[in-house]
Amino acid sequence: MNSSVASALFGVACFVSGCSSSPLTGEPLGSEPAGGAPTSEPPAAAGSGGATAPAPGPTSTFTAYPAGPYGTIRGATIENLSFTGWRHPDAAAYDVAKFETVRLSDFYDPDGHTGVKLLAINASAVWCGVCRSEYQDMNKTAVYSTVHSKGIEILGSLFEDSQYYPAQPRDLHNWGVPTSFNVKFPLVLDPGFKLGAFFDSDATPLNLLVDVRTMTIVQVTMGYSTTYWAQVQALLDKM
User: Fold this and answer.
1) H and E: helices and strands count for the chain
2) pTM of the model as a whole
C-alpha cells in the first residue's frame, strides 16, 4: 500500500473512532494511577448536556453608603468623605509610602457586625495647642484601647502645619509616631480642609460623633476638655 492511501485510511479511522495526540499511559481510562486521581473526567450530571456546572462565586458583603441629601449638623447624614493616610498607622510604621485611601464608608456598619457604634472624627492642626493637649491626654490615659473595646472608633485628621499651611505627609508622620502621640487609630491628612464644613478652624479641634449604623451626626463639639471621653461613653450607653 502506498503512503498516500495509508494516510487517507488513517484519517478515516480517526474520524470514526477519535484520535488523540496525548501520550499513552499504559493504563485504561478511568483507572487510578499511583496518585489516586482518575485519568478521565467524571461523567456530567444527567440533563446537563455534557457541561460542568460552574463553581459558586463569593458572596458579596458590599452595602451601599446611605444616600443624600447630606448635611453638617446634628441629625444629618454625613457625606462619604475620602482622605489619604493609614487605617492602622502603627502597623504601617507611620511610613508615608504606605498611605492608603480611607473613606467614611469604611466605617459604615448597618448590621452591627463590627461591634462599633460610634465614629469619633477629630480634626486637628499642628499649630493648635489644644489639639496637642488632647492627643497627649489620649496617649497618657490610653483612651483608644479603652473606648474601642466599648464600641467607639476614632478617626484622626490633620489639616494644617505649624505655619498654617496645608498639612503634608511628614506632618502626619511626626504627629503619629511613638515619640510624639503614639497614634494607633486611623489617621489621615485633610489638606483641603474637607472637615472645615463642620466647624470654624479658629475653634480647633473639632470632635464629631457619627452613628456608624446610619452615618448620621450625633454630636458636634469644638474644643476639648479632659471630661470629653467620659461624656462620649455616657452617650454610647444610651444608644
Assistant:
1) 5, 7
2) 0.74
Residues, the chain: 239
Q: From CA 58, how far away is CA 66, in angstroms rounded?
A: 24
Q: Are 111 and 159 in contact (CB under 8 A)?
A: no
Domains of the chain plus CATH, in order, are 82-237 (3.40.30.10)
The SS3 call for residue 5 is helix
Strands (E), 45-99: 82-86
Strand partners, 75: none
**Beta strand pairing call for 152-160 and 118-125:** parallel
Partners of residue 152 on adjacent β-strands: 118
Taking alpha carbons only, the member of 164, 146, 143 closest to residue 156 is 143
Name the E strands within 94-201.
100-103, 118-125, 152-160, 187-189
pLDDT digits (tens, 9 = 90+) for 180-221: 999 999 999 999 999 999 998 889 999 999 999 999 999 999
Number of other residues whose CB lies within 10 A of the CB of residue 193? 15
Report d(CA 132, CA 122) in Å as an integer. 12
Give the contacts of 7 (CB within 8 A, at least 6 positions apart): none
The set of cell numbers assigned to 145 is 484601647
- The separation between the first and the last C-alpha atoms of the chain, rounded to the nearest angstrom, is 94
Parallel, antiparallel or unpaired: strands 100-103 and 82-86:
antiparallel
Question: What is d(CA 94, CA 170) in angstroms, rounded to the nearest whole number?
Answer: 10
Cα 21 to its chain centre, rounded Å, is 50
* Kind plus residue range of the DSSP H or E element containing 4: helix 3-17
Q: Under 8 Å CB-to-CB from 24, ≥6 apart: which residues?
A: none
